[in-house]
# Entry
Amino acid sequence: MKVSRSDSRSYLIIGIAVAFLISFSSCAGVKQLHYFNDLPDSTHVFLPPMSKEERVVEYGDQLNIMITAAEKEAVAYFNAQGAVMTGGQSTSSGSGGSGSSNSGGTAAPGGYVVNSMGYVEFPIIGKIKVLGLTERQLKENLTKLIGKYVKDPLVEVRFTSFRVTILGEVEEAGTFTLDMQNPTLFQALAVAGDLPNTAKRSDIQLYRDYNGERVMIRFDLRKKDVLYNPEIFQLRHNDVIYVKPFKKEVFMQNFTFIASIVASLTSLLSIAYILVND
# Structure
C-alpha cells in the first residue's frame, strides 16, 4: 500500500506533536530535580536578612577559651591547659589529651570538652557549669570569675566543632564535623556530595535535638520557603538530615516507559522522513 504525500505529511505532523509532548513531559520531570522552582524568573532575587541565633553549649561541645591581660604571668596560669597567647597568636599546649578520650571536661588540643554533666574544668577556678550558655554568657561569667585574680582580663570564647549527620539518598552519607560556626543547609548538603536524581526533594526531614527541644521538620527543597525559614536554612549543632529515595519500581517504570516511547517515536519519524522524500 502506497502512502500518499499528504498522508506522510500527516504522519510527520503527528510524530512532531508526540515528540513535543514527550519533550514537555521530560522537561517537567527534570524541573522536579531543581531547587526552589517557585523563585521569580529574575537575575536578582533579594532575600530578607537572616539573623543568626546564638548557639548554646551542649554536651560534648569543644570550646576554645583564651585569656589575655596586661599581667602576662598571671594570665599564663589560666591558659596553662588551653590556648597560650604568644606574641598575639594562640597555640595549644596539648596538656589535656584528645577530644575523643577527654570525658572529664578538661582542656583538649584546641579547646575544652564539655563533660556529661555540662561542666568544664578551668585552671585555678575549677569546675564551671557551661551547659545551656551562649558564647556571650560564658564570656561574661568567666570575665567575672577571672577578674578576682587578674585585672581587666579579656576573655574570648569560640566553638571549635559543629556536627551534622546526613542520611538516606545522598552521594555520601555520614556524620560530618564542619569547621564553621553557623553552617547553612546548602553547606551541609555540599559535604554529603549533594542529592542524586533518585533523591526525593519534596519530602526531606530535619531531626533536631537542641537546647532541650526535640523536633522533626519536613520541607520541600523545590520551594523557595526554605530560603526564608531560618529554622531550616540555618542549621543547629547535631542536626540530622534524612533524604528519602524515590521508590525504585516507580523510577524504573518511568524510565522504561519514556525509553520505549522515544524508541517508537524515532522509528515513526524515520519512516515518515523516508515516505516524504520518496
